[in-house]
Amino acid sequence: MNLAKTDPKIYDLIKKEIERQKDGLVLIPSENYASPAVLSAMGTPLSNKYSEGYPKKRYYGGNQFIDEIETLAIERAKKIFHAEHANVQPHSGSQANATVYLALLNYRDKVLGIDLSAGGHLTHGSPVNFSGKLYNFAYYGVDSKTERINLREVEKIAKKFKPKLIIVSTTAYSRTLEFKKFRKIADRIKAYLMADIAHIAGLVVAGLHPHPFPWCDVVTTTTHKTLRGPRGGLILCKIKDRLDPKGKLTLSQKIDKAVFPGTQGGPLEHVIAAKAVCFLEAMRPSFKKYQKQIILNARAMADEFKKQGIRIVSGGTDNHLMVIDISPFKTESKRIQDELDEVGLYVNRNAIPFDKRPPYNPSGIRLGSPAITTRGLKEKEAREVVRLIVSLIKNIKNTKIKNQIKKRVKEITRKFPIYVDFQW
Ligand code: DSN
């Protein structure tokens, strides 16, 4: 193909990365294998087109087909998420969050977000992120005993701090998010409520996690995690602005303006086409079956970790992920992650609540089931994968065991292949 001739170095590296993905088991809960149809939509000349603005309100000519594509993506997003309004243009989850802040807040306005070490995200107010620098954040965390979000504590902080916006959002939290209860708190102090459901979007669409609507004003997500679409962001919101009903702009108009021209220029229409494909895939019965299996596999994994004597933060999982506590082991999380890399088991190290160790080398490892479930692994194999991980952690210096694990991982990937006839 052309790429191989034009740029053999990049061609070769892409090929190697595809092989790595095929030959390893991805347990990073935020990663997945998008379908060949999704990938195919992304690798198209749609990437050439400038389309600043929105369907029928563009600043450039030649957008008749782009308008149809983006309209389809919007309508499908609204349908699968039961949303009044959708903006499919955010390039990423971080940009989606930045956009919501720009739409709803002024510089230094007060926001209540979740602490990074309790399972939050950088854009939920981390001091090293734009969110923590531009806005005045307070944080809620998890209860030190249950390691779950304590709504009474959230309410106490909210009443004292009086934020303009409360964020319900997680990237490493294995328990159900109670949007309805958050809304009660937001109502008491007249704050906006936003949910970032990037991790659980697929579960929400499948009806396997409580829905953020009608409780939240705005919902952000990425499209590539449990939703299994292209890399990108999405904002869903109500049309009316609950806290500013007589304002010049509706909530949906504020959001659209904050995306363009507020934070972005030309949208990535090749990615928007791929988002439309992913939303269509998410309407199929097979998607619900897939999401159910994600949960079954995650529960089996958590149960197997416990059987193997490993502590799971909060004691288990309700969703697709879990964080295991590796502090009782002498080996550091970075080393464990590196060793697992070598046998083709991909995980990411992660802080645990009240972690005493630094973020670069914390006390936890985060794992999830979305990608292995896409490959077709079920509970039995998910349990075996856990046993392989634990065996490696416990025998970190044993080369023989490490080689046996590597061989077994390869066998599993051969039994559950991915991208078999993938053309690129
Ligand atoms: N980096 C993502 C995750 O792994 O959860 C969040 O943006």
Quick tags:
binds D-serine; 13% strand; seven-stranded mixed sheet; 424 residues; alpha/beta
Task: Describe this structure as you would to a colleague.
The chain has 424 residues and is an alpha/beta fold. It folds into two domains: 40-282, Aspartate Aminotransferase, domain 2 (3-Layer(aba) Sandwich); 286-415, Aspartate Aminotransferase, domain 1. Helices cover 45% and strands 13% of the residues. The chain is built from 16 helices and 15 strands. The chain has a seven-stranded mixed sheet with strand order 4-10-9-8-7-5-6, sandwiched between helices. Strands 11-12-15-14 form a four-stranded antiparallel sheet. Strands 1-13 form a two-stranded parallel ribbon. Strand 7 (165-169), helix 8 and strand 8 form a beta-alpha-beta unit. 47% of the residues are buried. Bound molecules: D-serine. D-serine binds at residues 30, 93, 121, 171.
Strand order of the largest sheet: 4-10-9-8-7-5-6
Domain count: the total is 2
The CATH top-level class label of the largest domain: Alpha Beta
Number of helices: 16
Q: What ligands does this structure carry?
A: D-serine
Any idea what the CATH superfamily of the largest domain is called?
A: Type I PLP-dependent aspartate aminotransferase-like (Major domain)
Helix content: 40-55%
CA radius of gyration is 22 Å
CATH-defined topology of the largest domain: Aspartate Aminotransferase, domain 2
For the secondary structure, the number of strands is: 15
Query: Cα distance, first to last residue?
Result: 8 Å
Kindly estimate the percentage of residues that lie in beta strands according to DSSP: 5-15%
Morphology call: globular
Largest sheet: 7 strands, mixed
Oligomer: single chain
- Class per helix and strand makeup: alpha/beta
Q: Which regions contain 5 or more consecutive residues with pLDDT less than 50?
A: none
CATH-level-2 architecture of the largest domain = 3-Layer(aba) Sandwich
Q: Can you give the mean pLDDT? A: 97
